[in-house]
């Protein structure tokens, strides 16, 4: 099923999106339960509430599936072969000395406050960075708590999937040994447009694409990840308890802005669209921060 967090008449709700993407049927959740977005469903352990009469999707405002995650978003760097090479060549990769292809998953995070919805503005603060880049990514949403999870059991802990644009200030990423500052600027984690449950998403066949102003920049398959999703979940859970609602961005394919010569950085007015087969499209316009 496709589940969206949305607002209508100033109230946050959670609903079931129909197959054509034309209507949304609100779940019969209390206002309090809907505050966390789809967390209100995840925490019910599969016991779904009834749905109410459907509304036209065009009549509501979509929010990020989890508008404010409880913890930082876990992210995996350099997780497609061609992207690992383009990033190592870019001069911004503080891990390049260890080789272009990582031996183990590179994990970093983005703060919860960086999350925005599809069609929300992503803000460029030119006083802080002049090298803003896009990264199309599949995000995993954890549904069951676990620690020391084996690869064989990892997918049992997945609730579903959504789309993330891991927007990055490349100059800040290159300046600091850790990536958090360059990855966690305000509005730098567009997420959505909704989430799909794991039973409706095919990890083996799904394609991932990114367009900037209609120009395709990234085009790959989720199956081409260097470290697959079971490996990522197992790695993260060694000594760290994963909790329901945790979000893991799994890495981006080749074709990011720094992969071009000269780099193709984003500017105010640019529109970035990320598509993943079986989920949908996440689209955001970039705007200059109002000083």
UniProtKB/TrEMBL annotation:
SUPFAM superfamilies: FAH. Keywords: Hydrolase, Metal-binding. One of its GO terms (biological process) is carboxylic acid metabolic process. GO terms for molecular function: acetylpyruvate hydrolase activity; isomerase activity; metal ion binding. Coiled coil: none annotated. It comes from the Bacteria. Gene3D superfamilies: Fumarylacetoacetase-like, C-terminal domain. Residues 73-286 form the Fumarylacetoacetase-like C-terminal domain. Belongs to the FAH family. PANTHER family: ACYLPYRUVASE, ACYLPYRUVASE FAHD1, MITOCHONDRIAL. This is Hydrolase. It comes from Pseudaminobacter soli.
């Amino acid at each position: 099923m496709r589940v969206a967090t949305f607002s209508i008449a100033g109230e946050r709700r959670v609903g079931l999106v129909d197959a054509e993407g034309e209507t949304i049927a609100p779940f019969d959740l209390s206002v309090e339960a809907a505050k966390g977005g789809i967390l209100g469903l995840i925490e019910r352990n599969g016991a779904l509430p009834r749905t109410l009469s459907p509304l036209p999707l065009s009549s509501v405002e979509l929010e990020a599936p989890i508008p404010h995650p409880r913890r930082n978003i876990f992210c995996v760097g350099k997780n497609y072969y061609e992207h690992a090479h383009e990033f190592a060549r870019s001069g911004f990769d503080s891990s390049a000395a260890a080789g272009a292809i990582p031996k183990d998953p590179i994990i970093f995070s983005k703060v919860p406050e960086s999350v925005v919805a599809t069609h929300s503005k992503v803000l460029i603060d030119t006083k802080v960075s002049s090298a803003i880049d896009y990264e199309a990514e599949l995000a995993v949403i954890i549904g069951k708590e676990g620690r020391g999870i084996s690869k064989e059991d990892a997918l049992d802990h997945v609730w579903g999937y959504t789309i993330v644009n891991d927007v990055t200030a490349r100059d800040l990423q290159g300046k600091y040994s850790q990536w958090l500052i360059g990855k966690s600027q305000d509005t730098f984690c567009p997420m959505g447009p909704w989430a799909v449950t794991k039973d409706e998403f095919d990890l083996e066949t799904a394609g991932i694409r990114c367009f900037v102003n209609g120009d395709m920049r990234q085009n790959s398959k989720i199956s081409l990840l260097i470290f697959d999703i079971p490996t990522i979940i197992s790695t993260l859970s060694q000594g760290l308890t994963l909790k329901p609602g945790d979000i893991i961005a799994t890495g981006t394919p080749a074709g990011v802005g720094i992969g071009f010569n000269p780099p193709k950085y984003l500017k105010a007015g640019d529109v970035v669209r990320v598509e993943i087969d079986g989920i949908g499209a996440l689209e955001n316009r970039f705007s200059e921060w109002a000083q």
